[in-house]
DNA sequence: ATGTTTTTTTTGTATTACAATTGATAAAAC
DNA sequence: GTTTTATCAATTGTAATACAAAAAAAACAT
């Protein structure tokens, strides 16, 4: 995690990403109907005031996420919603402001409740010594932050905690949930969480179960954590 | 699902997708190390014998999936594995032949066991009348195929069955699993499944529980289904 | 009517040129 | 000697133009 570029937001300044975001939001909001043709390249170039190069790179980006599909002579179509990859951090970011945050978060929780307890169970079994060490350090940090409470710091360390757990499953298919969860946090969940201490205890239970290699308990306490009150309403 | 273009494979003939696939496989296999710089654009253009246009569209596609990250003057880096989006059908396709299929399938099953039972539970509650109708028709088809057994037909209808269930959750975050499962089937799971009839009964239980709106039972029988023997080893 | 050829529209690919970013280097100021 | 500032150079970013390829639509022939 050390030698990656500063952050995703850096490249968001690039023109084709801005164009992609704009088109994506038209699709995600339903302004561009599923199955309909978007305007042809030259028209879009004029609409956005960019070159075909930039526009096409934008379209390729959206095609890769399952939103668009192009064919010569026909044009570019918005594909059916069932093919949109909502398990993609960038798409989740782009949903900001398009969907009722409460509904969206509650849907996400519907998936998270299925995935995260199992991730904890797997981490309890498969975490390497290095990963256990890392988790341990993060939990230490968590304790420290709680003693001298700081909202920003706590969100940061909370995200790291969950991310390390997903990594510790050592299962490729669980890895993406780390980013997805982080993105959901940053984009939608800005809840004030005054009950930092309560949370700490819940995290402690998860932490200890994983370190002890007790997968059943890890799963159970994680599920408890996700059913605690604060997950139900994202207080803006 | 009616008015999409013939299939994804059509566009795979396009040059930038071929290039993307080739680079992706070098990354996924580890031949291009995480954090390392890939050769600059002109070098890659020469290596692949394509124009910068095509090459850059390929890179944009891979960037969108979390495999690459570019910056002016610096170059293009392979990002850390934790950011690769394994929950992407195209990446899963590209893994073909790069990973031990048995390990890969077993990892996938590790996620599927978490997600699909919950999807069945949600479908039992949230499926619309139209979706219940669709599920019903597909199950009818399933019965018919079993009576006059045909491997290809059965795989087809099996995929549809599970896809409709994910759609019937009416939860955006469950939608992508339909494609992912289908892709896993097509790419890795070619098991002969002589026990088609046994499976039919398992599917019947799932089908009936969902139609009855019994979420707890739907979840339970789905989990049973996923723990039945044939899921453990993909017989090539 | 039906099959075949031509036309036309749209995306796909190539090429060239220049702009913007930024690390590295060198120069200047303190 | 250290720090700041300016310059340089390498790489990606953007633009513009031209032509190729695909495929639907139209025109044509049978």
Automatic annotation (TrEMBL), chains A, B:
Keywords, in A-Z order: DNA-binding, Transcription, Transcription regulation
Coiled-coil intervals: none
Protein name: FadR family transcriptional regulator
PROSITE patterns for this protein: HTH_GNTR
InterPro entries: GntR_C, TF_FadR/GntR_C, Tscrpt_reg_HTH_GntR, WH-like_DNA-bd_sf, WH_DNA-bd_sf
Annotated HTH gntR-type domain residues: 13-81
PANTHER family: GNTR FAMILY REGULATORY PROTEIN, TRANSCRIPTIONAL REGULATOR, GNTR FAMILY
Species name: Marinomonas colpomeniae
